[in-house]
């Protein structure tokens, strides 16, 4: 097939010229249907966002109602819409730690990009203009705009670009299975990582480090839950050196881990939180950055000094997106989503454990309705595949042949079904996955 006119995100454009497209034409609950009529379980909720599946009429109706009432308006200067005011009150009311202000955008990248700009604005406003370096983590994922991609620690997001910026440092990711030493406990491993973080801060000079950004559970970096004690140790170091903590809840937020936010799941104390994806279940794009009063008050003083907060997207606080997000929050509440994900998540994670019998499954980890399967050449000797062998990709292709869409992240297969999945569907999911695993062995 020739180029279809689209430069596909995350593609090898040359290789794609010879590949068949998977054209998705319809959605139905946890399923998507392709142009040839094949049904697939969407095992990663599209890109980790379709928490309520692909045919939630109430979300479509909320969008239609708003489109008919007021299809677009903005929030620049003193303008605002009623629906955005309602959403803001709701969001601040459910924030996992006290938050005092929300900035809206359309994507996770824009929210994280804004977080970096707020770090600058904050330190300029409080008279510490040198304290602006950001610490991210290798394999951490925060998006693809220039600033967000710099904070991202995934090499393929830097390749071919002039990234990352020297304003961002990256410390090791907390992947105990891959990097824990023989005989080391998780807690000791976390101690080692905390020491590395502290050394990085001291080396750069604490007076130059403005913020640390992290996902509660790493998604794109291989579905990695934090090892025991990790965030407690990190938080202590951040407090000691007065470093702001930005928690990227773009995947974890809105029930994925069996808590409304990853912040609650791991007892984090962020100064800023970014959200997207499950906020509107992806039906329309919306993201947000919440900030606590310490950050907001300094930023507000800065706007007074500068005369303006010179930041805002045309589609910041879009009323149609806000209406859909509000309805999603209503549905989450009615479904008692955290309880539901805790119960179904336990069932899902227990069922997945059966796959450990496979000689190529090294690790299975996750929480709630997100999991990662680390494939290895030999699970007993813990020998890893060479990246060039593309084992994760082969596994992904095999699941697709069995009617289950998954996502390979290197040699980890990511699973994150819609949160509306039921027990029978989980059984079907695991059955398809097991068949694909046998094909991959
Ligand atoms: N942060 C995290 C944790 C993500 O997983 C993603 C996307 O996968 C982003 C940020 C970027 O979001 P977007 O693709 O909407 O810009």
Automatic annotation (TrEMBL):
InterPro entries in UniProt: Aminotrans_3 (IPR005814), Aminotrans_3_PPA_site (IPR049704), PyrdxlP-dep_Trfase (IPR015424), PyrdxlP-dep_Trfase_major (IPR015421), PyrdxlP-dep_Trfase_small (IPR015422)
Keyword terms: Aminotransferase, Pyridoxal phosphate, Transferase
Any matching Pfam family: Aminotran_3
Keyword Cytoplasm in annotation: no
PROSITE patterns xref list: AA_TRANSFER_CLASS_3
PANTHER family reported in the protein's UniProt record: AMINOTRANSFERASE (PTHR43094), AMINOTRANSFERASE CLASS-III (PTHR43094:SF1)
Cofactor(s) it depends on: pyridoxal 5'-phosphate
Species of provenance: Halomonas salipaludis
Keyword Zinc: no
One Gene Ontology term of the molecular function aspect: transaminase activity
A Gene Ontology cellular-component term: cytosol
Record protein name field: Aspartate aminotransferase family protein
Family: Belongs to the class-III pyridoxal-phosphate-dependent aminotransferase family.
CDD domains per UniProt: OAT_like
Domain of life from the UniProt record: Bacteria
């Amino acid at each position: 097939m020739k180029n279809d006119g689209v430069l596909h995100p995350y593609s090898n454009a040359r290789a794609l010229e010879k590949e068949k497209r998977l054209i998705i034409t319809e959605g139905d609950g946890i399923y998507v249907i392709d142009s040839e009529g094949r049904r697939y379980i969407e095992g990663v909720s599209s890109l980790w966002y379709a928490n309520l599946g692909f045919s939630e009429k109430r979300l479509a109706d909320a969008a239609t109602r708003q489109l008919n009432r007021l299809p677009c308006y903005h929030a620049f200067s003193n303008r605002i819409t009623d629906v955005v005011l309602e959403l803001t009150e709701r969001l601040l009311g459910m924030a996992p730690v006290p938050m005092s202000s929300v900035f809206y955008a359309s994507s996770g990248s824009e929210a994280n990009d804004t977080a970096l700009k707020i770090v600058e604005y904050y330190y300029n406003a409080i008279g510490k203009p040198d304290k602006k370096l950001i610490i991210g983590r290798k394999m951490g994922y925060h998006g693809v705009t220039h600033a967000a991609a710099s904070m991202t620690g995934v090499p393929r997001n830097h390749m071919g670009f002039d990234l990352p910026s020297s304003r961002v440092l990256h410390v090791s990711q907390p992947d105990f299975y891959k990097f824990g030493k023989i005989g080391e406990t998780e807690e000791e491993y976390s101690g080692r990582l905390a020491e590395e973080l502290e050394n990085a801060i001291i080396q750069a000079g604490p007076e130059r480090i403005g913020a640390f950004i992290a996902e509660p559970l790493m998604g794109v970096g291989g579905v990695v839950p934090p090892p025991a004690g990790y965030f407690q140790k990190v938080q202590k170091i951040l407090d000691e050196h007065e470093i702001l903590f930005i928690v990227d809840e773009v995947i974890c937020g809105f029930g994925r881990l069996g808590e409304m936010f990853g912040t609650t799941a791991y007892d984090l104390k962020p100064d800023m939180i970014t959200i997207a994806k499950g906020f509107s279940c992806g039906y329309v794009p919306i993201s947000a950055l919440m900030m606590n009063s310490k950050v907001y008050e300094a930023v507000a003083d800065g706007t007074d000094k500068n005369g303006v907060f010179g930041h805002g997207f045309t589609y910041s606080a879009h009323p149609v997106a806000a209406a859909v997000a509000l309805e999603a929050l209503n549905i989450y509440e009615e479904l008692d989503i955290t309880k539901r994900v805790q119960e179904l998540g336990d069932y899902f994670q227990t069922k997945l454990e059966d796959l450990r019998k496979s000689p190529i499954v090294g690790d299975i980890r996750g929480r709630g309705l997100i999991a990662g399967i680390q494939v290895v050449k030999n699970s007993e000797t813990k020998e890893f595949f060479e990246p060039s062998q593309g084992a994760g990709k082969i596994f992904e292709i095999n699941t697709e042949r069995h009617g289950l869409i998954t996502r390979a992240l290197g040699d980890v297969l990511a699973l994150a079904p819609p949160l509306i999945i039921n027990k029978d569907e989980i059984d079907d999911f695991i059955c398809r996955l097991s068949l694909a695993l046998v094909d991959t062995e």
